[in-house]
Write a sequence for this structure.
């Protein structure tokens, strides 16, 4: 059965791997090497490399976040105890608790959502269409008389989108309002 994937910034600890035993001489290209080794298992949200504490052996450890807990689990099983890109084997475990990492759950940008949809659903496994894209600047009267005195103005767009997953018989719609400041009204 396919895993349900949520398109948001990953927050669950089961999506994060702790990798340690990274050799100090590999420091300049370590993030790239880790990304190359672990992205084979699925899309990564982030790869963060940190120097070991002064009381430990010289070297590094890394926190690797996947979008999917299933991808993280497969990567842990395949990579733990392996010599991925160095002489000695690395140790990999799934983070079980992340105290102090409480963060606000943020939505992903549309490009990343499309990349993830293509990965999990396959190209042509979904489609999207813009229902409406409308400039709604000034509808609330903000940039009329008072706004002329200010150099900076804002522009607002309303967008409604429909995403269809034909293989699953699903269709959903979403609406967003985007705003940006502009220097020149023209």
């Amino acid at each position: 059965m396919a895993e349900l994937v949520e398109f948001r910034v990953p927050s669950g600890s089961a999506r994060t791997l702790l990798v340690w035993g990274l050799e100090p001489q590999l420091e300049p290209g370590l993030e790239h090497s880790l990304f190359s080794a672990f992205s084979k298992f699925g899309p990564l949200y982030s790869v963060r490399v940190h120097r070991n504490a002064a009381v430990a052996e010289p070297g590094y450890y890394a926190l690797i976040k996947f979008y999917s807990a299933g991808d993280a689990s497969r990567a842990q099983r395949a990579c733990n105890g392996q010599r991925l890109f160095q002489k000695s084997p690395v140790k990999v475990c799934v983070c079980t608790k992340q105290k102090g990492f409480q963060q606000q759950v943020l939505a992903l940008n549309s490009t990343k959502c499309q990349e993830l949809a293509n990965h999990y659903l396959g190209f042509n496994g979904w489609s999207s269409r813009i229902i409406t894209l409308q400039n709604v600047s000034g509808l609330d009267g903000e940039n009329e008389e008072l706004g002329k005195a200010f150099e900076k103005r804002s522009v607002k767009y309303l967008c409604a989108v429909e995403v269809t997953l034909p293989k699953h018989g699903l269709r959903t719609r979403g609406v967003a309002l985007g705003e940006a400041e502009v220097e020149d009204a023209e």
Summary: Residues 1-9 have pLDDT under 50 and may be disordered. The first helix runs from residue 30 to 38.
